[in-house]
Fold this sequence. Notes:
- The protein is an alpha/beta fold.
- 35% of the residues lie in helices and 22% in strands.
Amino acid sequence: xxxxxxxxxxxxGGTVAARDVNLDIQRGEFVFLVGPSGSGKSTLIRLMxxxxxxxxxxxxxxxKDITALPNWKVPYLRRSIGTVFQDFKLLxxxxxxxxxxxxLEVLGRPRSVVKPQVEQVLDLVxxxxxxxxxxxxxxxxxxxxVSVARAFVNRPPILLAxxxxxxxxxxxxxxxMKLLDRINRTGxxxxxxxxxxxxVDAMQRRVVAVENGAxxxxxxxxxxxxxxxxxxxxxxxxxxGDQPTGAxxxxxxxAAEKTxxxxxxxxxxxxxxxxxK
Length: 277
């Protein structure tokens, strides 16, 4: 579904944001990109979207070599990729329903298709009673739900999320993660950049750790930080938990357990398009 081969990104001035990255993401996976600020995880998201050119290497998305894609074809590529960002990026002069419908209207979908699809996705994200409200009338968590609905309304095979819970409180973040988990269970591949320890530890999905632009760890069902057993298995002599000054503290076991219980406590049934048919 997504493959990065020997990908390097060097910005003007010599800053290396991605360094010889090799990564294979299969259809239907949920992958966390983790690492401190400036590690390069958000750069990888932008490269997958072709928002920026790579310095060298190759990236395939949905079977297409996007590094060789002509600029005029990039908008067509992005139609098959849903995106969710930390700052929501909603259109302030449009209602909730209009923000979501805009995605389908750009694709040329008829009104007879747009209206029921918008209603369906609003129900999915729990905002069916707020279709006529404007972004300024919503909480941060509700705005992010609109952002997720907009990203998913076209049923894209891939959804890329860059710090989607970065501006949200812990309880609201859990709600967004439940929503992304439900979407992933319909078959959508999700790649999410985050620095939220508790959510990553609770979800127990694939974790790709990035430091100084390089992939330093890739665990099929990992945690944000390397555990002692992982260190032993890898034959490393480093001690997990050592953090540079200014790094965020590792969450308590109790906090991670509470987050895990919250995410797992509700799993409303969301059928895929195939199941609905």
